[in-house]
Design a protein that fits this description.
The chain is of the alpha+beta class. The chain folds into 2 domains: 7-199, Jelly Rolls, CATH 2.60.120; 209-315, Homeodomain-like (Arc Repressor Mutant, subunit A), CATH 1.10.10.60. The chain has helices at residues 7-14, 126-133, 152-166, 174-195, 213-221, 229-235, 240-251, 255-271, 278-284, 290-301, 305-315, and strands at 18-28, 32-35, 42-50, 53-55, 64-66, 71-73, 80-83, 94-97, 102-105, 112-121, 138-140. The strands form 2 sheets. It has a 7-stranded mixed β-sheet. Strands 2-7-4-5 form a 4-stranded antiparallel β-sheet, with no helix packed on it. β8 (94-97) and β9 form a beta hairpin. It is globular.
Length: 316
Amino acid sequence: MNPPLDWLSQLLAMIPVSGRLDTRCYYGAPWQITYEPSPLGEMPYHIVLTGSAMVNAQGDYPAQQLHEGDIILFAHGSAHILHDGGEKKAGQALFRQELNFVISENLEAGERLEMLCGRFIVKPPYDRFLRAYLPPRLIVRATPALPVDHSTAGQLASLVGLMRHESASPTLGAHAMLGALSAALFTLALRRAGEEANTPSGLLAMAGHPRLAPALNAILHDPAHTWTQENLAALCNMSRATLARHFKERIGCTTNDLLTDVRMTRAINELKNPSNSTELVAERVGYQSITAFQKTFKQYVGMSPAQWRRLNKANA
């Protein structure tokens, strides 16, 4: 008998996330790096190892300074600029290919920065779910770790230390190690972000509002069930109106929106198995009407279940 999973473990079991480290940066001020929008399914991340960096203002996000140990994740793959925060014009950064990753450096002699840059990879259409429920820009702040620290902050600091060590010089198996550590970084960064006082709206807000967790766990564990506002509210020991208000405030959607997104994501996984008929998949994710399932799936993915099967088979 399999043990029950927490909601984040269920989410990551449903949506495969991998990672890779691309670049280790060594810069002296002044420096500036511009990142273009990422392809669909790629979420850039940066880890400040030593020194500090400024991230430019974007939309509703002001310019912010990153300090040693801080991690920034661009869940929507948006364009961004990182720089030293000074007014002097930055020179050109140099890039050289090392075994397993790229080294980027400049020739300036100002305040030093070391930084790891990589990306988390979530293949379409799974990336739609994470874009909908994660903020476009997420900063996970570093906190000093104790000598024996089993907290999330301590685990995160230890993980970053391993990544720093593996990327310090060409090492046998480093590419595989850094990919695995990057994937673990995604989970730990989300866990840590959920523990912080100013948790952004979306699924991360669940950690700061445990009363809603029973509803989220229920939807992720059994999306085929006929969940209603009434029975989800009962699980959370609150009224329908209170549940609806907290869901909108904390997660930014309705319970039905989340249920539909989970059902469609599960359907994508089920459709990968050629032995599963479309009718069976529809039933497994909670649709008694095949027509209703096909309509919702097409609205969500942009094509019919049959078309998605053919595309997925061709790309396999």
